[in-house]
Amino acid sequence: MSIYLPIAEISVNILVLVLMGGAVGFLSGLFGVGGGFLITPLLIFYNIPPSVAVATGANQVIASSFSGMLAHLKRGTVDVKLGLFLLAGGVIGAFIGTQVFRILREQGQLDLVVSLLYVVFLGIIGGLMLTESLKALRRSRGGKKVPMRRAGEHNWVHGLPLKMRFRQSRIFVSIIPVIGLGLFVGFLSAIMGVGGGFIMVPAMIYLLKVPTNVVIGTSLFQIVFTSAFTTVSHAVTNQTVDIVLAVTLMAGGVAGAQYGALVGQKLRGEQLRALLALLVLLVGLRLGFDLVVTPDDLFSVATGGA
Questions:
Q1: What does the alpha-carbon distance between residue 220 and residue 75 come to, in Å, rounded to a whole number?
Q2: Which of 2, 126, 159, 295 places its Cα 20 to 30 Å from the Cα of 152?
Q3: Region 42-67: what's the mean pLDDT?
Q4: pLDDT tens for each residue of 5-35
Q5: The 3-state secondary structure of 65-133, one letter per residue
Q6: How far is CA 9 from CA 124, 139, 240, in A?
Q7: pTM for this one?
Q8: What are the C-alpha distances in Å from 273 to residues 22, 126, 268?
Q9: Where are its TM segments located (predicted)?
């Protein structure tokens, strides 16, 4: 059965969309990620216009992150004060990103820029994750403990001015990198349709030295509200949020996330990170291949006078 997507202006198979949402939801539950960096490329592969895929993909991030944020709030593992500063930067970044998105769309360069950003970021993040996870697997097989960085260690960030104490995270750090990190993630959310957790989480751990048990919940807190603001901004500024597409994807994603969480409990952390890294690299390689391969339909745009 097919449905018509009014914003995308195409008819698609509803079963394919539900399965796509379910698959991304499964992976979200399995790996503990929002899934924005997966759903947007998949929608593009399915011939959904990148402008609609980016704007609508943010809805999937909100749906998959909201329940996780509530669970962390109940456990008291969300630093609301830190999350609000990250959110302040995220809103500014999302606003700037939405305007850049509009300009790129008007200039006809949006598809290229979105694909290039995904190839670069997925390649870098996937490569780093795969290297780290393979090292961890080798160490675990050799009976060695994997060294972890401690949250109390200091780096160059702690020498910056405008410091503030965040008691829940047990850190005393400048708000400059906090707001800057939120701004960067918010910008990516608007341009790429991602929640940014794959950047936010390691940055909070290794840059800000936030304890791991607080990082996930605080990151989800920022992602939910930044993604919501991004969705509204795209809907108002660019009119590229397809509600029919969003609801269909979320219907499959809710069910898929439950099964993914069950499977994820049976795998070790190193194995999960290695599988996620391979998935990220494969998506990046596919997008890179689409950029260099000759398209099936060649066309040219010409202008002529009277």
A1: 14
A2: 126
A3: 77
A4: 777 667 777 888 888 878 777 776 666 566 6
A5: HHHHHHHHHHHCCCCHHHHHHHHHHHHHHHHHHHHHHHHHHHHCCHHHHHHHHHHHHHHHHHHHHHHHH
A6: 34, 52, 11
A7: 0.71
A8: 20, 9, 9
A9: 12-45, 82-104, 110-131, 171-201, 243-262, 274-293
Question: What single string gives the DSSP state of each residue in the chain?
Answer: -EEEETTTTEEEEHHHHHHHHHHHHHHHHHHT---HHHHHHHHHHTT--HHHHHHHHHHHHHHHHHHHHHHHHHHT---HHHHHHHHHHHHHHHHHHHHHHHHHHHHT-HHHHHHHHHHHHHHHHHHHHHHHHHHHHHHHHTTPPPP---TT---GGGGSSSEEEETTTTEEEEHHHHHHHHHHHHHHHHHH----HHHHHHHHHHTS---HHHHHHHHHHHHHHHHHHHHHHHHHHT----HHHHHHHHHHHHHHHHHHHHHHTTS-HHHHHHHHHHHHHHHHHHHHHHHHSPPSS---------
Tokens 């950003």: give the residue.
117
Report the interhelical angle of 110-141 vs 36-45 (nearest 10°): 130
Q: Report d(CA 13, CA 31) in Å as an integer.
A: 27
Positive or negative: CA dihedral 147, 148, 153, 155? positive
Backbone angles phi, psi at 304, to 5 degrees: -140, 155
Q: What pLDDT is recorded for position 16? A: 81
* All residues at 6 or more sequence positions from 30 whose CB lies less than 8 Å from its CB, including other chains: 260, 261, 263, 264, 272
> Mean of the pLDDT values across residues 259-283?
70
C-alpha–C-alpha distance, residues 98 and 51, integer Å: 11
Q: How far apart are CA 219 and CA 214, in angstroms?
A: 9
Tokens, residue 22: 């379910």
